[in-house]
Amino acid sequence: MSQHKVVLLLGSNLGEQKKNIELALKKLKDAGNHISQTSEYLMSEPVEFVSSNIFCNIAAIIFTPLSPIQLLDCIKNIEVEMGRINDSKVSGGYTDRVIDIDIIKYNELNFQSERLEIPHKKHLFERDFSRVLLKDFI
């Protein structure tokens, strides 16, 4: 079975943020993905919406047997299991969230669909906190 190298960003700004991220990483591992490397945690202000809740963020490299869409479905299931209610693609805007997991890169794939864009251009090029987290991962 082929393993694909994927870069993820995880963030949380509700509840016990670091524990939320640790639980999400455990759930990713339990779903058959190998967590190869994680960054340091980084605290950041919300981007593209107003909230008094600060984000805790981390980057991770995983190896997965899943296709990009299978991985997206896995991630969305984890987000829902952990209590995420609003998906920004569905609601059309950002809100506070227990967990957010974004696929930043998947091998060297360029992919675009209604549900998924790889590489994730906003995180790679527009968001300062992302560039800090991803500097050793890209």
Automatic annotation (TrEMBL):
Sorted UniProt keywords = ATP-binding, Folate biosynthesis, Kinase, Nucleotide-binding, Plasmid, Transferase
EC?
A: 2.7.6.3
Q: One Pfam family name from the record?
A: HPPK
SUPFAM superfamilies named in the record: 6-hydroxymethyl-7,8-dihydropterin pyrophosphokinase, HPPK (SSF55083)
Q: Which residues form the 7,8-dihydro-6-hydroxymethylpterin-pyrophosphokinase domain?
A: 8-135
Q: Cite the Gene3D superfamilies for this sequence.
A: 7,8-Dihydro-6-hydroxymethylpterin-pyrophosphokinase HPPK
Biological process (GO) annotations held by this record are:
folic acid biosynthetic process; tetrahydrofolate biosynthetic process
Q: In which pathway does it act?
A: Cofactor biosynthesis; tetrahydrofolate biosynthesis; 2-amino-4-hydroxy-6-hydroxymethyl-7,8-dihydropteridine diphosphate from 7,8-dihydroneopterin triphosphate: step 4/4
Q: Which GO terms describe its molecular function?
A: 2-amino-4-hydroxy-6-hydroxymethyldihydropteridine diphosphokinase activity; ATP binding; kinase activity
Q: Which family does it belong to?
A: Belongs to the HPPK family.
Read off the PANTHER family from this record. Answer: 2-AMINO-4-HYDROXY-6-HYDROXYMETHYLDIHYDROPTERIDINE PYROPHOSPHOKINASE
- Briefly, what is this protein's role? Catalyzes the transfer of pyrophosphate from adenosine triphosphate (ATP) to 6-hydroxymethyl-7,8-dihydropterin, an enzymatic step in folate biosynthesis pathway.
Q: List the protein's name.
A: 2-amino-4-hydroxy-6-hydroxymethyldihydropteridine pyrophosphokinase
Q: Which organism is it from?
A: Chryseobacterium panacisoli
Q: What is the lineage of its organism?
A: Bacteria, Pseudomonadati, Bacteroidota, Flavobacteriia, Flavobacteriales
